Amino acid sequence: MHIRWAHRYLPAVSGCLSFIVNPVLAYLILTEKKSATIGRYRFLILFFAIFDMLYSTVELLVPLGMHGTGSAFVTYLAHGPFFGKDRIRLAQFAISIRSGFISLSYGILIIHFIYRYIALFYPKFLEQVFRPFGIFCIFTFFLIHGIVWAGICELFLYADDEMRDYIRETFRKDYGVDSYDIAFVAALYMDGSAEVNKRGWTGILSLSGISVYAVSLYVILGRKVDEVRRHSNNFRFLRSFGSFELKMLYPKLLETCTSNCSLCWLSRL
């Protein structure tokens, strides 16, 4: 498959850097001077760093490309160990799983904001967060995001013959590959049959709903926490909490949000 060198190698370089940056982050977390103001919050940031390395691993194993043509938006497998006509169904499932990591990143950021909210408004419940039931709830909430996103890809955005015929000429011209020989998920929101258009719009609107819900929670919880910061008398706690976030978390938030924006499903609408 013909793709530009930047599209092939730059994501791989970025993924490899994750395995340099995150161990350093983990070291800083584990060696940070223990205090009552930070407490077990360090382990939530450690969870974030481990997830980022897992995300990078999946990106390296399932490198994706995006293409828009006519009324179709396509996310395809560009190369890698799953690439090939003989593994096309497995590759399509791998694409769905890889896409699900977008929503997993939403989930882990929501968990971060919820923790901050509990820490400031209901501190007596903090001890419950890292007990077995609390950890079970965190992981369940986290995994549901990825399962739902991947499920939407599998149920509504799978590649069928109509979709392959629609993009066939374009992919032969631009990439030198037959659309029947590659794995992809796609949405055709016009120019297709009623059933295919309905599937495309259902998938697009469902994924958009997840994104809107996540961003809305970020804004709502973030504003509430900011109000407490501006009016609370516990300045020492808030300064320490904010300083730790600035050193440990915000660079990772920026990296994850940038990655997700580049994979936005609605970039062609």
From TrEMBL:
A Pfam family that the UniProt record links to this protein: 7TM_GPCR_Srj
InterPro entries membership: 7TM_GPCR_serpentine_rcpt_Srj
Membrane-spanning intervals of the chain: 12-29, 41-58, 95-118, 133-157, 200-221
Keyword Protease listed: no
Keywords of this entry: Membrane, Transmembrane, Transmembrane helix
Classification via PANTHER family: SERPENTINE RECEPTOR, CLASS J
Protein name: Uncharacterized protein
